[in-house]
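User: I'm preparing a small set of examples for a lab meeting where we compare how different chains pack in three dimensions. I only have the primary sequence for this one, and I'd like the structure in token form so I can line it up with the others. Please keep the answer compact; I'll paste it straight into my notes.
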Amino acid sequence: MPAHLGSFPKALPIYGVDHPSLKNEDPRIDWEKRVKVLNDLLGLEGYLADAGDRLVLQDNEGNRVIQVYKASDSFLYYDRRIVSPTDPLFANKILDHDTAKLKAHEWLAKYGLGDQFTFFEGMAYTGVSTAQVSDDLNDAGKYDNIEYRTEIKPCFGFHINKTVVLGPGAKIMLSYAGDELSQVAYFWRRPVLSPIGEQVIRPPETIKKHLARDPRFAHLDPNNSKIRINTIRLGYYAASPADFQRYYLPVYQFTGIVETRGGHNAQGFEALVKEKGSFVKETFQYHFNYYLSASNLTPGQYKVSGFPPPINGSIIF
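Assistant: Understood. Below is the structure token output for the 317-residue chain.
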């Protein structure tokens, strides 16, 4: 555990999600409106298909695609011709940090997608590597691994009244291949800003006992394994954009590293290496990023609150 866990509030307000189905409105009207807005915004003409949890709009050539999620305010746009480019030539056209950040801010502001809830979080990149013959005469016949950045991705997060929103359903990422917009991932649910109540926050010191009983860590041999927690954040949890959610509820996000010597690695395979005629245990490390309920709600109460049942232990209780 980190030596200093930081200070956290003793309670947080609970906010509802602003979704048509929660106001006894026909969600199909909202879907149609959002498809039209995005169609006009991105200038895409083509055909619309219902894919169950989302509506998919494609141009007539099938190159440009918009996926509109029904359960949230989220959408995903991409251009198959240029998204995640692997051609190293794109490295010569990549935007610099400040230009990409400015373009992203301007694009979000122009279409009303950057609002009081968003903040700039950082920059990500698409990278490719190629093998080239080494220039070093002493390494004749050897190859150097050359890495290129071919796409730049300004990333934005969300907050509700200065408390960060965590999880897979709260992010914006715009991708630029050269000067062209290659992808937009907009994952969000509008909150109702009048709190419906308050939830007492349990101290983060309780994390240790929850880790000990969680199946992902319970199998570790305490004599040969270490769990190192690097960061702890308190925020509201946003489920996957395809999942229906009624409320924003508080969680702790904790990230770190598991180091295990022998036993099982991250994939669950035996970690033994033969060395000098005998078997020795090999050390493995893998990163984790999990969410712990910051309240005393049980899994059943979370489900009643509109959260899907924790899939693959997405939230620990």
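A couple of notes for your slides: The first helix runs from residue 27 to 42. The first strand starts at residue 11 and ends at 17.

User: Perfect, thanks.
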